[in-house]
Amino acid sequence: MSELKNHRNSYIILGIALAIGFIISAYILGEALKSRNYNGIYVKGLAEKTIVSNLAVWEPQVQAWSPNLSDAYAKIKQNSDKFYEFLISKGISKDEISFAGLDNTITYEKQGFEDNFARRTGYQLVQSFRIESKDVQKISRISQEASEVFSMGIELISSTPDYYYTELEKEKIELIGLATKDALRRAEELAKVAGTKVSGLKSASQGVFQVTNKHSMEVSDWGLFDTKSIEKTIKSVVSVEFYTK
Q1: Domain residue ranges in the chain
Q2: Cα 69 vs. chain centroid, distance in angstroms?
Q3: Which of helix, strand or coil describes residue 9?
Q4: What does the alpha-carbon distance between residue 138 and residue 129 come to, in Å, rounded to a whole number?
Q5: Out of 3.30.70.2970, 3.40.250.10, 3.30.450.20, 3.40.50.1970, which CATH number does the structure's domain 56-164 have?
Q6: DSSP letter, residue 10
Q7: Can you say whether residue 129 is alpha, beta or left, with left for phi > 0 and alpha for psi between -120 and 50 degrees?
Q8: Nearest by Cα to 65 from 143, 154, 159, 158
Q9: CATH architecture of 40-54+165-245
Q10: Residue 12 pLDDT exceeds 70
Q11: pLDDT the model gives residue 30
């Protein structure tokens, strides 16, 4: 009797194991069929907007050279003071101006056919300024008028100011939403042509953010960040996959 009972228990356990195996196999097969029968649409959405920079940063430099270090310093001090007064006279306030640093470079003159001997000739001093203002148009205008200081004997090194938009992160969030809506419209149009309907969002990812000169068609896989134009175009791209039914 004991041996018969053990055989019976073994059959029961085997039956339970087979039942569990069948359930698991059915689930896996069902998921595979669902995946195989999946219908979807993959699209990209685009949104863009024109913005106007609200912060200007200009970093001009004044330089002076002399064979004597103390004379070079006296020159750079005099020229820096003159340039500072020039900025004030043009309407830039004192709290918008800062001195970014004074660099000193020893200059040499090479002698000999093989240039293996150099003689010290003097000292080149460069005083850097940093002008930061929310009045973008004012800084743009003054940077273009800066050549006036040449007539004062000031050696000026200047380039175009950098222009920024301080609310860019806020704009990014808004554009992502608009780009996603654009992707949905595209998906719905494609689904209509295919005789199906968009039934839900499967996945979405944000592409690179582009900040370019106004009306520029330039793009980069790494993203662009233009700082040399006052008016800019910002662009956001999203990649979205929708379920269809």
Answers
A1: 1-37, 40-54+165-245, 56-164
A2: 42
A3: helix
A4: 17
A5: 3.30.70.2970
A6: H
A7: beta
A8: 154
A9: 2-Layer Sandwich (3.30)
A10: no
A11: 43
Are the C-beta atoms of 215 and 233 separated by less than 8 Å?
Answer: yes
Q: Which of 194, 196, 223 is nearest to 211 (CA)?
A: 223
Q: Which pTM does this prediction carry? A: 0.77
Coil vs helix vs strand at 188: helix
Query: How many Å is the Cα radius of gyration of the chain?
Result: 35
DSSP notation for 26-83? HHHHHHHHHHHT--EEEEEEEEEEEEE--EEEE--EEEEEESSHHHHHHHHHHHHHHH
Per-residue pLDDT band for 191 (boundaries 50, 70, 90) equals confident
Of 44-53, 73-82, 208-217, the range with the lowest mean pLDDT is 208-217
Q: How far is CA 61 from CA 81, 116, 119, 137, 179, in A?
A: 12, 32, 27, 20, 43
For the record, the structure tokens of 197 come out as 């309907």
- Retrieve residue 39's tokens: 């219908």
Confidence band for 219, pLDDT divided at 50, 70 and 90: confident
**Residue appearing with tokens 């800019």:** 232
User: What single-letter DSSP state applies at residue 225?
Assistant: B
Identity (one letter) of the amino acid at 146? Answer: A
